Amino acid sequence: MATSFQSIPEPDPQSGAEDKQRRLDAARHDPQGTNLTTNQGVRVDHTDDSLTVGERGPTLLEDFHAREKIMHFDHERIPERVVHARGSGAYGYFQPYDDSLAEFTVARFLADPSVQTPVFVRFSTVAGFKGSADTVRDVRGFATKFYTTQGNYDLVGNNFPVFFIHDGIKFPDFVHAVKPEPESAIPQAQSAHDTLWDFVSLQPEAQHAIMWLMSDRAIPRSYRMMQGFGVHTFRLVGADGRGTFVKFHWTPVLGTHSLQWDEAQKIQGKDPDFNRRDLWEAIEKGAFPEYELGVQLVPEADEHRFDFDLLDATKIIPEEEVPVQPVGKMVLNRNPDNFFAETEQVAFHTANVVPGIDFTNDPLLQARNFSYLDTQLNRFGSANFHHLPVNRAVTEVSNNQRDGFMQMQIHQGRAPYHKNTLQGGCPAIADSEVFRHYQERVDGEKIRKRSPSFQEYHSQATLFWNSMAGWEREHIVAAYRFELNKCDHMHVREQQVEQLNHIDHDLAVAVAEGVGVTPPSGTPTPNHGRTSPALSQVNTLYGSVASRKIAILVADGVDPVAAELAEALGARGALPELLAPTAGSVRGSHDADVPVDRAINSMASVVYDAVIVPGGTGSVATLGQDGYAVHFVAEAIKHAKAVGALGAGTGLVARAAAGSARVEVDGDRVVEDLGVVSAPGATGSVPEEFVESFCTALGRHRAWERRTDAVPA
Ligand code: HDE
User: Region entry Disordered: which residue ranges (predicted)?
Assistant: First the structure.
């Protein structure tokens, strides 16, 4: 996860990211100040009653307004994406730091630091339907459309750097296995069921991506706090036609952070839109998500220098072998105006490439290059989906493609063919800035056979496992156990445990013990012992409290510190909220009203990053009697969150902590232990030391070393 997070240079005003927004203006419709009309622009004076014969009689066919309104309603839905149906999008821009890629690619948006390129990004889950919950255990899509001055470029990636299969022909099988089982349509957006595990335990190539799926990477805290990867090896092409292999990486400025599984499951009920809301609110509040683009470059001459095949999308190039070079930064700074028009109708396509970027023969990528164009026909029912505002290029589009459902352009001229003389030969073939396919010599037999270089399946899963910290391993073992315990067929559990025996014997045994099967009988594959530290979230970025949500629990009689605390934390970029048993305000111990942001029982600790209980004996006594409030604190303790306590609040937090961290309840000291910060003496004002210590704990994201098994929440 190497990053530099430089600042980007002043862009050339002509190349601004606002270009796409200006063009969208033509399609925007603002109902402010308008009158209600039919689709033909005829004003109507009544839209609540149909045209009937008499007050209680039948509706007339001539009620064109009612018929039009209902007809349109009947056709409001389009098919959801067959995968990645659930998603959230935002606009922004990308800009390179410098021209360091200029010698490798003619793609200006990557190599010219004066160019700021507008982007639209859609984040998604994969398996669930459009209305499914956000925080399921799943891969996240990370798809970026760059509206470059050389045409649209789509980088359609995921938050895992590897995929489950290495040939696209298996994709329908894989997706059928992970989707709800066909006879019952159960379970929704879950990998924890027989068919998925039956499939992957019979496809050893899936085991590496499955290891990622069982890790905390599959439950990101936020779309703003996850990495993105192009996954495939692509090719950069320079002015001299030279190719260079490239892997793309997005790294979030806020670090890569995850939820805890118990918490993720609870959020599915408390706030199914958790990640969507987080993205939306962050952008509305001006906390713009930022990601650094990095590249791993491999000269063509080194194609065969690795112990895996560069064309195999189930493999990473370890960062320690080929460092990730920072290239530029993407900032997401604008929410869409309309979810359907923009986030739903955006159409990504891996074959949307621009001069300077080309494909490789990765068989997964080759299949995608067919699928993404094809799937849009199903979603839009027309080949004209590139006319939709969100999909339109900012460059001129001119060709001889004509007609089709929903043609939005009025093509002039009488010669829609090439070559012609009747239109002056236009559209003409340009002699510069054109896309030229990378010239690669290919020859061979026509065969259905995967290269032996793709046929080593487990060593990188072992690399991932070896690179994990103790707590990351605990989470992985717990995830395998959870998932396999949901499988009804014991032989499916056994099949998967046998696979694990090729990754790490101790892992296989630990999982077997938790899922009621006998430990693997076969000879284990010896663990090679190698690690790649960049894979562990221990080595991500920590320290920032920007946009972290903090619940401050108060009731009547609260010490004056509550409001002061909110101000001090807000000044550091965190998002504190005051929660009380009822909404409105509470009466402070200093006899002043303290406004409250939300009622405790309309929220839950799982949607916050941290909880603080200020003192005030009346306030703490009320909260202590409120089972919901006590549970709120205990749950935050359980999920290893930063928890703060001041004055009498230390008593309540000590009770909730149930011995999992030391909480001071007497004296004047500020004490931090395993992410729990207590300041029993702080009643009149908030000690700076408390704020410092609490923010340090919050900036560490979670105190994973806190042992919370005994905490009942
Ligand atoms: Fe996709 N994938 N995919 N995929 N994929 C789609 O395209 C497909 C794969 C990814 O926000 C679909 O427009 C095949 C890898 C993202 O709109 C569809 C194969 C990676 C998105 C499709 C793959 C992805 C999609 C569904 C195996 C990571 C959401 C709707 C050859 C590098 C894009 C659509 C958005 C969406 C097919 C494998 C990422 C059906 C056949 C590998 C982020 O075309």
Answer: 1-51
Residue among 130, 212, 344, 368 to mutate when testing ligand 1 (max atoms within 8 A of CB): 368
Structure token pair of residue 277 = 């809301």
Quote the pLDDT of residue 397: 96
Q: Verify that 343 and 263 share a domain, yes or no.
A: yes
Residue 446 lies in a domain: no
Is the beta carbon of 364 within 6 A of some atom in ligand 1?
Answer: yes
**C-alpha 192: how far from chain center:** 20
- Is position 709 within any domain? no
pLDDT for res 199: 98
Say yes or no: 500 and 601 in one domain.
no
Query: Residue 145: which of 314, 349, 431 has the closest Cα?
Result: 349
Output the pLDDT for position 5: 79
Residue 157 Cβ < 6 Å to ligand 1: yes
Residues annotated within the binding site for heme are 81, 122, 171, 368, 372, 379
Domain that holds residue 46: 39-76
Residues 679 and 554 in one domain: yes
| Residue 7, pLDDT score | 86
* CA 371 to ligand 1 centroid distance, Å: 8
**630 lies in a domain?**
yes
Q: How far is CA 459 from CA 314, 315, 527, in A?
A: 11, 10, 8
Cβ-in-10-Å burial (0-12, 13-18, 19+) of 457 comes to buried
Q: Is the ipTM of this complex over 0.90?
A: yes
| Structural domain ending residue among the three candidates 368, 391, 414 | 391
Dist. CA 706–CA 713, nearest whole Å: 15
> 214 and 144 in one domain?
yes
**Pair (238, 317) in one structural domain:** yes
The answer to whether residues 622 and 615 touch, using CB atoms and an 8 Å cutoff, is: no
**pLDDT score at 6:** 86
Cβ(62)–Cβ(51) below 8 Å: yes
| Residues 159/216, Cβ–Cβ less than 8 Å | no
Give, to the nearest 10 degrees, the angle between helix 688-699 and helix 561-571.
Answer: 50
Best residue among 80, 312, 348 to mutate for probing ligand 1, ranked by most atoms within 8 Å of CB: 348
Same domain, 521 and 643: no
Annotation marks residue 232 as catalytic: no
Active-site residue identified among 158, 335, 466, 501? 158
**310/316 Cα distance (integer angstroms):** 8
In a domain, 314, yes or no: yes
User: What is the total count of domains within the chain?
Assistant: 5
Judged by DSSP in three states, 1 sits in: coil
Ligand 1 binding pocket includes 87 (Cβ within 6 Å): yes
In DSSP terms, 332 is beta-bridged to 92
Q: What is the position in ligand 1's atom list of the atom closest to the CA of 374?
A: 44
Question: Does residue 250 sit in the same domain as residue 301?
Answer: yes
* Chain centre distance of CA 599: 29
Instruction: Note whether 51 and 134 are same-domain residues.
Output: no
Helices marked H in 546-646 — which ranges?
561-571, 617-625, 627-638
CATH number, residue 580:
3.40.50.880
Main-chain dihedrals φ then ψ at residue 157, nearest 5 degrees: -110, -175
384 carries an active-site annotation: no
| Residues of the chain with confidence (pLDDT) below 50 | none
Q: By three-state DSSP, how is residue 620 classified?
A: helix
